[in-house]
Design goal:
Chain A has 15 helices and two strands. By secondary structure, the first copy, chain A, is mainly alpha-helical. Chain A has a domain of 96 residues. Chain A has a two-stranded antiparallel sheet. The two termini of chain A are 17 Å apart.
Chain lengths: 288, 288
């Protein structure tokens, strides 16, 4: 895991400073958010799915970094005053607090655009697979995926909460990009068959849903020291959560069921699925 | 010209409604801005450069629409309160006035992302050329190009005006995407040689610069009826313009010189360059 994270971190800063001549301020803003201590789950999924399909994970590095850039841009835009109006992100001032709203907007736009440039810089991926990968990324990051989830999230503020609505928002808002991360790794291997792509899809859907449920549980059961942010904020903000809709016990059971299902989906990878199995278990048992 | 514009307009709405199941509100916001009567200069350049290089313009349609989507997203984000705070765009309420700020932000994000999905849907373009085309688009739309120009534009508000600064901002903020439009057409033809690419680059740089200068001249010499927006707004907003820095006479001369240079750059296309020659002349003599 740490090897992958180091690879992603050095890839990200290299790819960022590569393009951006004479644009110190905006590049600093982009880098500020990119290096703000994320878990790097998405890029790790890309690298490891590439390896599990029989490819070289380094060939998937540009795609992995592209996914993380898109994740980061979405957080920057999500924190803006016209959206969630969050002054803090992971204990540090959010991008618009540190660099100004207009620059945060452009840092997000810049990261989203750089993600596609970066993805297309991939070496050793067959052209047809690379085109398919980047098209999948755009589809799952856009109105049919992540952006669409953000829209539904805004719209659901005025609707009565329901499990179905919550699942739809989560499937798009966070699930779509996690799915993209897994699928992109498969494409990067140049060796993924239909079975592997289906497995990556099912696995990523399940860990994506489990991840959201665990998030909601931790907001109730954790301490602010463990979590690194205030607990109980969901209830305070009247947020639609799994805990509010299903109770804690059922939420825990559902997260466990989804984790089991994710692991079962890895069957076609046999022994090569063990890292991904561990990852699913670690995410379900995390304390922050 | 009108044939191209019709092709682009029907392409845009088809490509937009293709992806966006169950997202009526945001798709409406995206379509509102996409169909707000732009001149479609960029997509027309893409289609015609494809033809001039010996290709079929219809093969370039997805790339042409992608460029126009990126142009449109940049206008939506540019109009936002944290940027230029413009309530109107081409005489109609700007996107955030019509749909709300949060939805305008996401409509812009959605269009930028859709542009890359659309570009990669291109048929009949060799994979290598398509990858090169979309990488070029991302590079010229991002921090090294258009987004970088918007950053420099913001930063120049606090600096003393100079011709050099103005030219740098314009070269990136509007010139980069016009250049992308021309180059993408060449790539789409599958037949462009180095000479044609260099010609497209020079032609688009020249008409891009001339376009800006004519804009500044019209703001002083036109009437609001002809222009369809208030005249004299540059001086009122204390904007750095060619007219303020060079005077009207020299601005007119420079626009003429750039138009001549654009036309001269078309030499390698021989007779196939005549539409592009007319386009350069039309743009330099336009009244709005």
């Amino acid at each position: 895991m740490q090897g992958y994270i180091d690879l992603v971190n050095s890839g990200l800063s290299e790819l960022l400073y590569d393009v951006c001549d004479g644009q110190d301020y905006i590049v600093e803003a982009m880098n500020y958010s990119l290096s703000n201590g994320g878990k790097r789950i998405r890029p790790v999924l890309t690298l490891e799915f590439c390896r599990a399909c029989g490819g070289n994970p380094e060939d998937a590095l540009c795609l992995a970094c592209a996914v993380e850039m898109i994740h980061t841009y979405s957080l920057i835009h999500d924190d803006l005053p016209c959206m969630d109006n969050d002054d803090f992100r992971r204990g540090k001032p959010s991008c618009h607090k540190a660099y100004g709203e207009e620059y945060a907007l452009l840092a997000g736009d810049g990261l989203l655009t750089l993600a596609f440039e970066t993805a297309l810089k991939s070496k050793n991926i067959e052209s047809g697979n690379l085109i398919e990968a980047v098209k999948t990324l755009a589809n799952l990051a856009g109105v049919s995926g992540m952006v669409g989830g953000q829209v539904l999230d805004l719209q659901s503020e005025n609707l009565s909460p329901s499990l179905e609505k919550l699942q739809t928002v989560d499937r798009l808002k966070t699930g779509a990009l996690i799915k993209a991360a897994a699928l992109l790794g498969c494409y990067a291997s140049n060796r993924a068959d239909e079975k592997m792509l289906a497995a990556a899809e099912r696995y990523s859907e399940c860990i994506g849903s489990a991840f959201q449920i665990v998030d909601d549980i931790l907001d109730v059961t954790s301490t602010s020291e463990e979590l690194g942010k205030p607990v109980g904020s969901d209830e305070k903000n009247n947020k639609m959560t799994y805990v509010a809709l299903m109770g804690i016990k059922n939420s825990e059971k559902e997260a466990e069921r989804l984790t089991d299902e994710a692991i079962a989906a890895l069957e076609c990878f046999a022994d090569e699925g063990s890292f991904l199995k561990e990852l699913a278990l670690t995410l379900s048992k995390r304390k922050s």
